Amino acid sequence: MTVNKTSAGLRRLYHQRISHPPFKDASQVVAWLGAMQGQDYLGTKWAFGLRLPGSTEAAVEQAIVDGVVMRTWAMRGTLFFVAPPDIHWMLGLLAPRQIAGNKGRYRELELDDSTLSRSTQLIVEALQDGKHLSRPELFTILEANGISTAGQRGVFMLQRAGLERLIYQGEMRGKDTTFHILKAGQTLPRDEALAKLAERYFVSRGPATLADFVNWSGLPITEARAGLESVKSQLIEEVINGQTFWLSPEKHQHPEHTLYLLPGFDEYILGYKDRTSVVEPQFLDAICPGGNGIFKPTIVSDGQVVGIWARTLKKKTVEIILEPFTSLSSHEMEVIAERAAEFGSYLGLEAVIK
Question: Does the pTM of the predicted model rise above 0.85?
């Protein structure tokens, strides 16, 4: 079956549960998606809020404090939020490849196996008895024990402890991340974990291609293909612009309003290698200027990115600054006003559109 770009975008909005979200709490959101980009802490909280109608930033923050959702280096050396039942099998599948990929950097930073083992031991000991320590606090402990954290040494030592499934990132304390002990858990046989990750990805993000899955997961293409093959019978195949896409057979519901204010780094954008199904090629640089890896919040209408936006927090208001790529219709502006009000309610502030 062949579908157009608008249909592809609308289906993704539905399958990602941006439209018609059924969730009651943050753990349900991330369990559905498998993992959510987590490098932009504030933005990811809105990615949760967007999929939790009527929720507040405070409620999402509390879910992070309580460990209902966990942030770790799940794949590609990048921070993601995951659900507690998924963190061990996912890292069991994806962490070894990340550790192997870090070997050159470990050598450059003079982080040999002995140093990494000792630093991991010290980090884990410091977090016992339910302690939540910030990055600077953990760095101080490492330095006091003769282990330099200069340059990126400290960051890579913390990451290694995370990849070993011993710690995870929790709430922010001011501008600093806190770290928590990760309770022991079970991994899965590799073929089972591959199938599970592929199912989560294609069911929650379809229509998507094998190349999209490879780009998102960081898996080698042979393993990604094996994962897809094992769940292919549960998916349907479609052709969009000559490319083969896979998605859930679940019939999508057309949203009443098709305009949304998405955060930067949302899975709607970052979950795919080829983003031209939802972004016209001439606008790709606007959402990620110069390909610098910093993705701006986007305005999505009828499944297509039609602009970017930013927020400025005031004492009692949040200013929403719109930068549409082309003129927006009066109806689109009406819906933006509704979406801005929802965002303001989420923050506990009055929204003002600029």
Answer: yes
